[in-house]
């Protein structure tokens, strides 16, 4: 596994990987139109790929043998409502495709996210987790994250119940 910073040229492959990972995990929860709208807005050309050239965001890739993207993590400014202060960063996504889950990819990406947030001067890292994604919740709890609030996560016209988790750095 090779870990490296994403560059704009990674946009198309990263977009496809993120869509696949999201659909593998949550695709059955939504109407096709809601899912399509979400995927396009979040991972389409004006979403994730555009963040690869935006200095407010940092994206780290985990590449498998042959260059396939096995996972990624994205840090950036907090988008949750509320006053989070200027020294709080958000872990927007930490995605790992099924074949690489349990292989150390997620911990490597989380270690990068924590170190990078600290190096950038953040004193807190926040993220959101779908209320029924217990595997992700256990993963974040192992790092010391705690639930601090609720967040209405919108997928098309459907509103999901997400939980905001926080870690003091």
UniProtKB/TrEMBL annotation:
Annotated protein name in UniProt: GNAT family N-acetyltransferase
Species, as recorded: Sphingomonas desiccabilis
The organism's place on the tree of life at top rank: Bacteria
A molecular function (GO) term: acyltransferase activity, transferring groups other than amino-acyl groups
Stretches of the chain forming a coiled coil according to its record: none
Keywords, alphabetical: Acyltransferase, Transferase
SUPFAM superfamilies: Acyl-CoA N-acyltransferases (Nat) (SSF55729)
InterPro entries noted in UniProt: Acyl_CoA_acyltransferase, Bact_Acetyltransf, GNAT_dom
């Amino acid at each position: 596994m090779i870990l490296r910073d994403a560059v704009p040229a990674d946009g198309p492959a990263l977009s496809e990987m993120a869509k696949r990972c999201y659909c593998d995990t949550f695709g059955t929860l939504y109407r096709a139109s809601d899912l399509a709208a979400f995927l396009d807005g979040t991972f389409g050309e004006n979403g994730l790929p555009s963040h690869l050239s935006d200095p407010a965001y940092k994206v780290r890739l985990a590449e498998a043998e042959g260059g396939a993207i096995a996972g990624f993590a994205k840090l950036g400014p907090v988008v949750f409502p509320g006053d989070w202060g200027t020294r709080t960063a958000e872990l927007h996504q930490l995605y790992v495709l099924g074949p690489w889950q349990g292989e150390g990819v997620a911990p490597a990406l989380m270690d990068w996210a924590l170190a990078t947030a600290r190096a950038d001067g953040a004193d807190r890292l926040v993220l959101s987790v779908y209320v029924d994604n217990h595997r992700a919740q256990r993963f974040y709890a192992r790092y010391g994250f705690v639930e601090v609030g609720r967040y209405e996560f919108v997928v098309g016209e459907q509103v999901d119940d997400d939980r905001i988790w926080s870690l003091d750095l």
